[in-house]
Amino acid sequence: MPDQQPLTAADWHFLAYHRFARLATVDDAGRPSIVPICFAADGEAIYSALDEKPKRVDPLRLRRVRNLLRHPAVALLVDDVFEDWDRLAFLLVHGTAELVWPGTDRHTAAIALLRARYPRYAGMALEQRPVIRIVPTAAFRWAARPAEAAPAPPRDLDLYALIQGRRSVRALRPDPVPPVLIERVLEAARWAPSPHGRMPWRFVVLTRPEAKARLAAAMGAEWERQLALDGEPPEVIARRKERSHQRIRDAPVCILLCLYLVDLDHYPDPVRQAAETTMAVQSLGAAAQNLLLAAYREGLDCGWMCAPLFCPETVRAALGLPPDLHPHALITMGYAARDPVRRERLPLEALVVRWE
Ligand SMILES: Cc1cc2nc3c(=O)[nH]c(=O)nc-3n(C[C@H](O)[C@H](O)[C@H](O)COP(=O)(O)O)c2cc1C
User: Fold this and answer.
1) Together in a domain, 223 and 248
2) Are 168 and 133 part of one and the same domain?
3) Confidence of residue 222 (pLDDT cuts 50, 70, 90)
């Protein structure tokens, strides 16, 4: 029996760092066919859209589709080819292919993955066409230099360098973030310490432009109202609102960190209850820091927006969240558009008030 999950984390990482592959299928006569494809991977399968590029042919008449419907065993090659042979590397994936049809959750999720990776898919009507789904059955990875086979994270630094290197980055490039990397940073958050080990936080991940725009518009309207109450002049309100809108809109990924108190202890008196809630908030901060450091290590940068804390109802309504999720922080994540301001820190002597 082939292993159902033969790709290692490093293999998925290799896929995440590559944007094009070659897909090989075979016909009834045993004739191989190979085509270049765009793809996205979700840690379980690899997806490829039957997009509008081959306009001349009905997608079901495409050779690769005809072949895989009759012979689902396919091979996928992702490679680095350079004149400098020391940098050669490839990943060969054998798998079983099928079509995922429109109208299913899996199809919707696959299209979202592909659109997150390739901005040009935003303008194509992928909804009407099936998507190829390949479940890996075996994999082989080779590299001239072993380091190439398991690409090091872009900031392969020691912990102290990561802690000191991370900075709040408020301007991000629109380049999409591979889903594997989003999973990695959430995975880091998952390992944060928490009161009684109850993990009192939940994450809402937004990558679709419509979702981000909905959140930005709702929070912007509420912020406008609050700034007007503070007596801010209209032009200042308009400027601040647009800047915040832009931060959310331009971030390829927004992660809303929500407090989730349901699993915590419940006390009859308000003092202990408040302490329990404070512990949960402290733990949310720890999860956030894990996430920020992991993102930084992966070559990503983040900004922290506290706005959701000031309008939790608005955020819940905009995103259709249940009442037991308490929005606390919006982390914008992507690739830095420019070097951020490097804010200094107080010296340790000012922070350690006693050491005896
Ligand atoms: C709880 C919390 C809320 C924050 N809220 C915001 C915010 O709303 N907008 C923003 O631009 N930065 C926000 N930040 C980021 C801080 O301004 C930033 O961490 C601080 O200035 C230190 O800079 P550094 O992160 O680059 O080291 C927040 C940080 C924390 C921990």
Assistant:
1) yes
2) no
3) very high
CATH number of the domain to which 113 belongs: 2.30.110.10
Q: Is the CB of 167 under 6 A from ligand 1?
A: yes
Q: What is the pLDDT of residue 53?
A: 67
Q: Which domain holds residue 246?
A: 159-336
pLDDT category at 16 given cuts 50, 70, 90 is: confident
320 and 207, same structural domain?
yes
Residue nearest to atom 25 of ligand 1 (CA): 168
109, exposed or middle or buried, with CB in 10 Å at 0-12, 13-18, 19+?
A: middle
Nearest residue (CA) to ligand 1, atom 1 = 306
- Tell me if 304 CB under 6 Å of ligand 1: yes
Supply the pLDDT for residue 1.
Answer: 37
Quick one: 244 and 102 in the same domain?
no
Q: How far apart are CA 355 and CA 352, in angstroms?
A: 7
Residues 42 and 165 in one domain: no
Q: How many domains does the chain have?
A: 2
How high is the pLDDT of residue 157?
A: 86
Ligand 1 contacts CB of residue 346 (under 6 A): no
Q: Among 205, 206, 161, 193, which residue's Cα sits nearest to residue 285?
A: 193
Whole-number average pLDDT of the chain: 92
Name the closest-CA residue to atom 29, ligand 1: 304
Predicted confidence at residue 2, as pLDDT, reads 38
Instruction: List, in sequence order, the alpha helices (H) in the chain.
Output: 9-16, 63-70, 105-117, 146-149, 159-165, 179-190, 209-229, 234-250, 270-297, 307-310, 312-319, 348-351
343 lines ligand 1 (CB under 6 A): yes
Q: Is the CB of 305 under 6 A from ligand 1?
A: yes
* Per-residue pLDDT at 245: 94
CB 170 less than 6 A from any atom of ligand 1:
yes
How much distance in Å is there from the Cα of 168 to the middle of ligand 1?
A: 6
Q: Maximum distance among all alpha carbons in the chain?
A: 82
